[in-house]
Amino acid sequence: MSPQDPKGPEHQDHELLPDAAAELKGIAKQGMKHPSTKPVLTGAAVGALAGGLLPVVTWPIGLVAGAGVMLYKRIRP
């Protein structure tokens, strides 16, 4: 899809890493008042639980993966 494609996603002109950095800075500054904090923490908890249950993945890897997935979903819905 080209950036001029009217049917394309609205977020095509944004970069992922700067958006993620801005979101993380907002979470760090506002704490639990930021709208992304609770979903990201929930994703981290679910990932840690899944990592603890799976034999190959450890809970820290699951925690980071779960938080990463939820952060991505908050940035790119």
Automatic annotation (TrEMBL):
Protein name as catalogued: Uncharacterized protein
Transmembrane stretches in the record are 44-72
- State the organism of origin: Altererythrobacter xiamenensis
Alphabetical keyword list: Membrane, Transmembrane, Transmembrane helix
